[in-house]
Amino acid sequence: DWTMAEFRKTKIEEIRRQVGSGRVICGLSGGVDSAVAAVLIHEAIGDQLTCVFVDHGLMRLNEAEQVVTLFRDHYNIPLVHLDAEEKFLAGLAGVTDPEAKRKFIGKAFIDLFEEEAKKIGGADFLAQGTLYPDVIESVSFTGGPSVTIKSHHNVGGLPERMNMQLVEPLRELFKDEVRVLGRELGLPEIFVGRHPFPGPGLAIRIPGEVTKERCDILRKADAVYLDEIRKAGLYDAIWQAFAVLLPVRTVGVMGDHRTYDSVCALRAVTSTDGMTADIYPFDPSFLSSVSTRIVNEVQGINRVVYDFTSKPPGTIEWE
Ligand code: XMP
After folding, report:
1. DSSP codes joined into one string, 126-155
2. What does the pLDDT look like over 193-244, one tens digit per residue?
3. In terms of Cα–Cα distance, which of 148, 122, 179 is closest to 1?
4. Distance from the alpha carbon of residue 145 to the mean position of ligand 1, in angstroms
């Protein structure tokens, strides 16, 4: 794609101009956006860049390994891998309000980046994979009063005391354009084609309190769901598909005994930019086989429901 080749060149020059001989820290989330931003910035400034992957313990199954492999083995870009599961779970204990979860997670990320920056003798810039829709949705609906729908944790600037500037080379792009740029930069298809995943991770897919146990249950259900979607050849036709673990228990029966376990909701939507979305119209037989597998294979879930809400009025995530 010649337009993206052009964009790549222009951005590389822009990054070099902005950064000069400064040091940049880039936070990787495991998603496409931050990976593309990091690879682009690395191409521009090489080892002035330090990538930090914060594993908050709120990733999907096996996701953390995939990120580490991509950067270390595929690109040979040095990467600091922080295992921060305990810090995040401790901070989330007792927190049930969606915005409070986001605020805590956003702040914990910044604290960790700051610590890493100190370790390398200070960094002048923090790089992020912020996209255009992130900017809009965190700011306001045009024309109306300023209403924050969700404070995407990677938007909204940095604390004053940080003394770092932001480098956000993807700020004008939509997701589909980021994917084109990712291919242009040689990212493997399994990475580029991956469904979006929010920075706060599974924390906003577990309404109510987030615990390690609930994260583990959700990871298993989510993996079964995505496995079935891939096997049915539907993965690329869907913008985002995921499971949500509800803070509701219902009664069921398994074999000859009564169960009293959590409900899991399945979400799948089509979209071009995440700003509006339609539900994916699965075959009922597909949903029923996913439901059977989840209830049989995931201990702690005994009922599965499908979310039929488009965006608007729903949002894609449940929190
Ligand atoms: P919503 O739920 O607002 O989601 O319809 C739109 C898109 O944004 C993702 N999302 C987030 N991404 N930090 C992120 O980096 C966040 O706090 C966040 N909240 C939602 C969501 O997965 C969807 O792709």
Report:
1. EE----HHHHHHHH--TTS----S---TT-
2. 999 999 899 999 999 999 999 999 999 999 999 999 999 999 999 999 999 9
3. 179
4. 21
Please tell us whether the domain made up of 211-306 is placed in CATH 3.90.198.10: no
CATH class given for the domain over 2-192: alpha beta
Domain ranges, ordered by start, for the chain? 2-192, 211-306
ipTM (interface predicted TM): 0.99
For residue 291, say whether it is annotated as part of any ligand binding site. no
236 is in an annotated binding site: no
Q: What amino acid occupies position 313?
A: P
Contact 204, 318 (CB under 8 A): yes
CA–centroid distance, 167 to ligand 1, in Å, is 20
Whose CA is closest to 45, among 70, 14, 15? 15
| pTM listed for this prediction | 0.91
Cα–Cα nearest to 51, from 34, 27, 16: 27
Ligand 1 probe mutation, 99, 316, 318, most atoms within 8 A of CB: 316
Tell me if 240 CB under 6 Å of ligand 1.
Answer: yes
